[in-house]
Amino acid sequence: MRGKAIKWLAIVFVLIVATMFIVNPVSAAKRRYISIASGWVTGAYFPMAGAISRIVWKHLKKDGLKVTAESSGASVANAKLIGLGDTDFAILQNDIASYAYHGKKGIFDQKIKNIRGVCTLFPEHVQLVSRKASNILSVADLKGKKVAIGPVGSGTAENAKQILWAWGLTLKDLGKAEQLTASQAADYIKDGRLDAAFFTVAVGAAVIQDTALIVPTRIVPISGANVDKLIKKYPFYAKQVVPAGSYKGNDKDVPTVSVMAMLCARADLESDIVYKILSAMYAELPLLRKAHAKFKNISPKTGLVGMSIPLHPGAEKYFKEKGILK
């Protein structure tokens, strides 16, 4: 009897220990922490990454996926993070993505061959903001002025240099070229340390709205024959308008140019993960569109507009299923 009792106690003990290791399917699955490199917290990239994170948590936590939105140095820096394998996804401009994939001397001396497109998101207007007191009415008037061209490693800095080129100017023609973040540039304009600043951001960006509330500003037009010259050399640009009323004192439509923001991924990121995240994003368009005013027109139908690099296989699968990619 005693032997049988010991045997049963042993069986019970084994069962108790076994149940301690029984977990639900999410815990049993290998949890994946996915990172998205975005941009400045004052721009549109960070809210986009945050919205994707919330959508993944809502739809894919059962699959063990969790997305972390990370603030970063924007487009050029984000492409380099992809190249180093230090992030899974990144949001960047379509022109910078192409420079990264194909290589561009002075920006990407080594081609980043492991970067792949997931989808394009929204147009990013190049907005040249000046203090009204500086009397800058065109790009040509930047000569001799103190101008912020965007931080080191940003798409904004490349846009600024390309636009200056179209007007026959270089950074040396400026009185001073400052490489500042968007929030720093705004502060410098407010206190008079800058005459103007380039911002490649969605229209309605809080950093420009706030500046216009503090000091009289002007959205300087980027228009005319020089824009055609710009687009001929850099075909990623498109003619756009900053609508009247976007900012205080902005009472007329102002012509400018834009590039496209896009979501990229590492080429070696599992196709299933890219497919699931992209599917979840487009399944939750109302939630995505609430994150920023500029996201209101995002849809699968426009997800390949301006795609400048090869698609990730997971994205290719999604767009083929929807009949958008043949």
What does this structure look like?
The protein is α/β, with parallel strands linked by helices. The protein folds into two domains: 29-121 and 261-321, Periplasmic binding protein-like II (D-Maltodextrin-Binding Protein, domain 2, 3-Layer(aba) Sandwich), CATH 3.40.190.10; 124-259, D-Maltodextrin-Binding Protein, domain 2. It has helices at residues 2-20, 25-28, 45-60, 75-84, 94-102, 155-166, 182-190, 206-214, 225-233, 271-283, 285-290, 313-321; strands at residues 32-37, 65-70, 89-93, 115-131, 146-148, 176-178, 196-201, 217-220, 238-242, 254-266. Strands 1, 2, 3, 4, 5, 6, 7, 8, 9 and 10 form a ten-stranded mixed beta sheet that branches. Strand 1 (32-37), helix 3 and strand 2 form a beta-alpha-beta unit. The radius of gyration is 24 Å and the shape is globular.
Structural class per helix/strand content? alpha/beta
Please give the oligomerization state of what you see: single chain
What is the distance, rounded to the nearest whole angstrom, between the alpha carbons of the first and last residues? 75 Å
Strand content: 15-25%
* CATH class division of the largest domain: Alpha Beta
H and E string: HHEHEHEHEEHEHEHEHEEHHH
| Helix-residue proportion | 25-40%
* CATH fold descriptor of the largest domain: D-Maltodextrin-Binding Protein, domain 2
